[in-house]
Fold:
Amino acid sequence: MLDRTDPEGAVAEAAAAYSNWGRWGADDVLGTVNFITPDERRAAAELVNLGVSFSLSQSFDMNGPQKGWRRRTNPVHTMLDTGVDAARGTQGFPHGIGGADDVVSMPLQCSTQWDGLGHIFDHGRAWNGRDAAEVVTSAGDRITGIEHLAAPVAGRGVLLDVGRALGEDGELPDGFAVTAEHLEATARGQGVAVGRGDIVCVRTGQLTRARRQGWGDYAGGPAPGLSFTAAGWLHSTEIAAIATDTWGFEVRPNEFDDAFQPLHQVAIPHIGLLIGEMWDLDALAAHCAADGVHEFFLTAAPIPFTGAVGSPVNPVAVK
Structure:
């Protein structure tokens, strides 16, 4: 039972109980992604039977959900050269060749993305017990930058469609706290098991609702999401990563009277868990519901921006 008045005590207790510090050595930069071994990847590749693929990414454009919180904005896409320039012959190229170029300016966590291991700290400590001031400086994440995850995030994906299993019309209401019991019941109902090295995708249905009703407070407002009490499940299952269709992964408002994202404070710096947010799971979920198969091969490499603490991603599930 959570004491709503003591988030700091709850975080400290969970951090002590579920810490993976030192599990993969003092120099580790992968955290729970270490659970995805070559054997796991080979087994995951054998899940491909239909050859059907699904992008699990939202769009990256000015119509996205961001509202400017902590300077997070939607992507700004600008053309540097266009077909108009080519048609007018103003590009200066010989023998009639022309082209188009563009540039995008955006926060790295403005749409479908991974939270890197340098994204969240607990009392000045980063993943594996390191001093946060030594890990992330004005030069970026000098130790656990997202570039280290460019290759290994590929393996067995599992969809837990909690929205379809527990919600009305396939959607959980804002503020719904998804517990370990909810996750396990959903997995049983879908006939799928969650285990070591899995990349777990949790669909709440909030993105579905936001697309129907408008973004509203999708970015940072009330949302269904994982309960703080699910920290033990995240640790004991030995999953490699988890992603949701919500802005912040955990339930909002948070389950304490005065807190901000306390599950992040345990999951990232202590468990070393890779967390994905704002994933678009709807098309995949519809297919899984139709054929009853909720496991698939999933590749979800971040863009390897050197020293970044998060990255856009276009996850692709293949069944």
